[in-house]
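Item description
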Amino acid sequence: MKNHKNQMKLGLFLAGTGHHVASWRHPHAVSNASMNLSYFKEIAQTAEKGLFDLLFLADSLSVDANSHPNILTRFEPMTLLSYLSSVTNHIGLVATASTTYEEPFHVARKFASLDHISEGRAGWNVVTTSLAATAVNFNKSEHLEHSERYKRATEFIEVTKKLWDSWEEDTLLLDKETGQFIDENKFHSINHQGDFFSVKGPLNVSRSPQGHPVIVQAGSSGDGQRFAAKYAEIVFTAQANKLDAISFYQELKSQMNLFNRKRESLSIMPGFMPIVGATEAEAKEKYEALQELIIPKAGLAILGRYFGEIDFEGIPLDTPFVDIKLPDQIDGIKSKYEMIIKKAKEENWTLRQTYQWVAGSRGHHIAIGTPTQIADKMEEWVKDGAADGFNIMPALLPDSLTDFVHYIIPELQSRGLFRTKYESHTLRGNLGFDMPSHVFAK
């Protein structure tokens, strides 16, 4: 494993016009951003100019009229990233795929293909899918319960990794004189029989440049942390403040000992929304301009999604959030539910202030200030053990990304905190991760 200890890792979280829920209403927003290939090409190339480790595409498999505007219409992730691989050279390409609504063979094949197409830059964001409404889009009437989703996910990833290993490095012989196409001793059926899947294999894609695409995971619940400690190489998480981030970091890294994993084989990258200005006042003006564009109905709907689809409409917006009766348990994103309640109590927020915060960044950390102030905060988080890097969530695209690349990246580089050139052509190489071992190789 290469020593990248002193340098932070950066991902760019792609999202239409930007992560702020009202970014689409901003005068600078591109109206058809979510379905505009030229736009995504420009974004990807700007991120690569900034030497980001990776592009990250979230995904969902159901929408309704109250969904975040950026997800109502958007490209299927593998299709978009395959295109972006042809207009970039170094930046990693991470796509989301659900273990609840896909099959291991499909996922193994798609990501191995993307790894070949991109010459070793693919990553899989493993999700269990939190929205119950997804079930009815996949010929089901009920959504798997939280713990069952993680049981299925555990078996799913085991099968997927075996399929990636069904080809050894030198299985292909292509000997034209003897007529031997493969070495059959290095071509493996996996013969998996489990509680959720029966898969014979082998995969019909040869071993990919990285061996396995990089495994990314975003769950922060107890089940999610155990899953990450065993399998993930990158974890995206939502942490509203540094102390919570340190606690999460220490808890997750300590669990890696249970699976005989080295702490440096997993990078924790909290979501981070930077709002940069020449002065702190200018940065605050940019943020408030976006906040003022939030439509209350949309903000309340987004907040409701984290509380089991609770309907907050009709409750006076100036009601203290702690006075609102909430469900004791939900079957959605439990870590987000708990974080929002904690933050609202600490800040004594009203319902209005709570939905504005959640709608603006979905609970991720917002940093507002000058390039120096934002770089100070990023450096502090990494040095204090709160993060290995960040998943950057531009509030407004392309403006926020352009500001970050032009002003914050040079500041980080001048402090020796970020690379000045790519170290490798593969995502694993740039992250400093080892190639995975092969379960069938002797």
The mean pLDDT is 92. Residues 221 and 301 are 23 Å apart (CA to CA).
